[in-house]
Design goal:
Elements: H1 6-16, H2 20-29, H3 34-43, E1 59-67, E2 70-78, H4 87-103, H5 108-112, E3 115-116, E4 119-120, H6 121-132, E5 137-145, E6 150-157, E7 162-170, H7 173-186, H8 198-214, H9 219-237, E8 243-244, E9 247-251, H10 252-258, E10 261-270, H11 282-291
Helix pairs in contact: 1-2, 1-3, 2-3, 3-8, 4-6, 8-9
């Protein structure tokens, strides 16, 4: 039997919001497989979804810069949140985004090698690291291009903790910006339900079927129940189907259509998502100093 650690239990609790004993039971039942444990809890009706799976785990800022028909969304990381308030760091992130939008590099290595009036992007980052006193890294970026009849929408939330970049076919820039604000706030996964991979849909249908069976529902209504819940799931993750944040009486697709447009694509960066951050134990730190 797999050994279940306290850290695993805590991670599952954070992801699903269930109690400690329920989290441990789920991990024991699934031999410590985190994804299967989440499904196990959902099938039992104890956890609706892994809402907190993308815990923010690093500091820094994201930004979006537009250069005619090209836009770049970037994330630059630092070690502490204090740096995000630093004017030099803010200027550096904006500067890097503008350089990437203008040069359209293929990857991070190519971006770091871009020539600037101070040398290269990498040398500017090294210089900023020395002045600010923290390690600074260009983590990621995406370059997006549009046609003349399309509009970019960009939005920064919390000064750049979350950044979103949207392309709308038709409509206008104000509409695209409203959709970008919605994307930042609601965090959809796909533009529309047709973009959802077949395997993700099949997996969700399977989990919902087991959940309905465990609720003791008659076989003849399970299929209808599952389709209803699957429809709700698709509406939650598909941008077009979501209730528009500025007017919940209409969907995002209907709002954009009312402006003679259609959402083409979106990108959303949340600073630190997917990065494992070292958790400092203050008590252990103090005790080690006392012993020293």
């Amino acid at each position: 039997m797999a050994k279940i650690t306290a850290a695993q239990v805590k991670e599952l609790r954070d992801k699903t919001g269930v109690g400690m004993m329920d989290a441990k039971k789920a991990l024991v039942a699934t031999e410590g497989d985190m994804a299967k444990a989440v499904d196990f809890l959902r099938e039992k009706g104890m956890a609706k979804a892994a809402k907190k799976s993308d815990r923010v785990a690093a500091e820094g800022l994201a930004n979006v810069e537009v250069n005619n028909n090209t836009a770049a969304i970037v994330e630059v990381n630092a070690e502490t949140d204090f740096v995000a308030q630093n004017d030099q760091f803010k200027a550096l992130v904006k500067h890097i985004a503008a350089i990437i939008a203008a040069n359209k590099p293929a990857d991070v290595a190519a971006a770091l090698a871009i020539k600037t009036d101070k040398g290269t992007v990498n040398e500017e980052i090294i210089e900023a690291t020395q002045v600010i006193g923290e390690k600074i890294t260009l983590r990621r970026f995406t370059v997006v291009e549009k046609n003349d009849n399309e509009n970019f929408g960009a939005y920064l939330h919390m000064g750049g903790k979350i950044a979103s970049l949207v392309v709308v076919d038709g409509a206008d820039e104000a509409t695209a910006k409203d959709v970008a604000m919605h994307v930042a706030a609601i965090n959809p996964k796909y533009v529309n339900r047709n973009d959802v991979p077949a395997e993700e849909l099949a997996h969700e249908r399977e989990v919902l079927t087991v959940e309905a069976k465990n609720e003791g529902k008659p076989e003849k209504i399970i299929e209808k129940m599952v389709e209803g819940r699957l429809n709700k799931f698709l509406a939650e993750i598909s941008l077009d189907d979501q209730e528009f944040v500025k007017d919940p009486d209409q969907t995002v697709a209907k709002f954009v259509a009312s402006k003679d447009g259609k959402v083409k694509s979106f990108i959303r960066y949340e600073v630190g998502e997917g990065i494992e951050k070292k958790e400092d134990n203050f008590v252990e730190e103090v005790m080690s100093q006392v012993k020293g």
